[in-house]
Amino acid sequence: MNDFGVQFQPVPRKGPIPRNVVGLIGGYYGENPTFVLSLNGVEMVIQAPTDPVGFPSVSEFDRDHPFYEWLVTERSKKIYAHYLEIVQALLGSFKFGETNWAYLVHGSKRNRDSGGYEIVTKPRWLPKVTCPPWAPLIHESEVEFTVYGVAGDRRGIWKGKEVDITYGWNEDWVKRLDTAMQGHKFLEGMDLTFEVYGHLINSKGTIIGIVTEAGWGRMATLGDRARIYQAISRVQRRGALYRACLTNRFMIANGKVRLLDPSAIEVFPPDKRNELERLAEYWHWDELDRLFHEIQTIGPFGDYRAPFARFTASYKDLECLPLPPSPEKPLGGIMLYPNFFKSFYVDPWPEYQQQESEGSGVVAKTRTRSREPLYIDDDLLIQASWAEDEDRPVSCARIQSRARHRIAFHPYRQRQKRDNFIAGSDATSVSSFEERPPRYAIGVI
């Protein structure tokens, strides 16, 4: 059985970031590393250059190396950790609330302690959702965010209720918010989603999120096969695809199917129904066949179908960045807070390795085994489809051609030849709780 150590968490009643302390609540690593910070409920996005000064360029790597992609990823993670220490050193150089966006720029002669970097604030205007609102408007000050799965996928408390929030903090998440609103609207009245409480707005009245009942229940099992096929058949008959079947975006709450990712709904007009039926052969029935085969042969999470981060995140996963002492040089930055590296491993910095090799005169010089960092098996790393690039899930297309088994659950038996499609969903997998209200959710064994 494969659960790869996942433990589901209840929704806390209070936020995890202490007063007057900056929290790292999300971001990206890779191209244009990005940090989403929060201080006393005020958020700021800091974007850094792709290539920092002093780091080898990606062009220096051998593209024919069998682990080329892994080497590039490791480089990106080291750069992210390097930039994060610089950002922490510069936290006192700007004020939260003046703007929504800032840039880490190199070339400053004033900030030698930060390697010549400085933070330049500049407003960034994000696109607006196109879907008209249909639910009550909820001001963001009314919601206390208590869980940050990623910056755009949150949980919190609103009027004493536990809620899930899709939050549009950048262009990608505004688009996802827009499609999520359209998906919720399409599914309205079908009893296939958790209740929509309202649209989240900021001080300017702009819609920046959608607030729903916090997801609860349990994850799908083989015994839920018929009810899930029936639910997807209803969606298809109504004129839409649900592109989140293989990624297992389902929950079962009080015996009812809940679709966890309305942003994966794609609506087809009446004159495109033939196209819908053609695509549904892959996106619905082939993917469901594979999903339940994985559940049966591998375990409840299938082939590394990781849950939404909001269901498993806790305060232990959030990195706090206390303001560095001033005007003295920062005392090591995030290196003083090693919990960041429990899930974000990078090689030890040279000074650490030197200190380890020197040892201590107090400790007896007995021979011990050399200590090496534990690395994930390379073959497993390459095969895994659950890896995430911080806030942006990595799209993995590893669907192999195979003949679909005609099973009794398939509602539309078609004999004509079908085209093959490649999965491109950027979603990962589902959540699972005991079938009771979410405050008492427990982990899956």
Key traits:
single chain; 445 residues; alpha+beta; six-stranded mixed β-sheet; globular
Describe the structure.
The chain has 445 residues and is of the alpha+beta class. It has a domain at 22-125 and 322-345. The chain is 22% helix and 20% strand. It contains 7 helices and 18 strands. The strands form 5 sheets. The protein has a 6-stranded mixed β-sheet, covered by helices on one side. A 6-stranded mixed β-sheet has the order 6-10-11-9-8-7. It has a two-stranded antiparallel sheet with strand order 12-15. Strand 7 and strand 8 form a beta hairpin. The longest helix has 25 residues, at 273-297. The model is unreliable at 328-339, 348-356 and 359-445 (pLDDT under 50).
What topology emerges from the helices and strands here?
Elements lengths: L21 E7 L5 E6 L2 E6 L20 H22 L11 E6 L10 E5 L15 E3 L3 E8 L2 E6 L2 E7 L3 H17 L8 E6 L5 E7 L11 H14 L1 E3 L7 E4 L2 E4 L5 E3 L5 H25 L11 H4 L6 E3 L28 H9 L19 H6 L4 E2 L2 E2 L52
Parallel strand pairs: 3-4, 6-10
Antiparallel strand pairs: 1-2, 1-16, 2-3, 4-5, 7-8, 8-9, 9-11, 10-11, 12-15, 13-14, 17-18
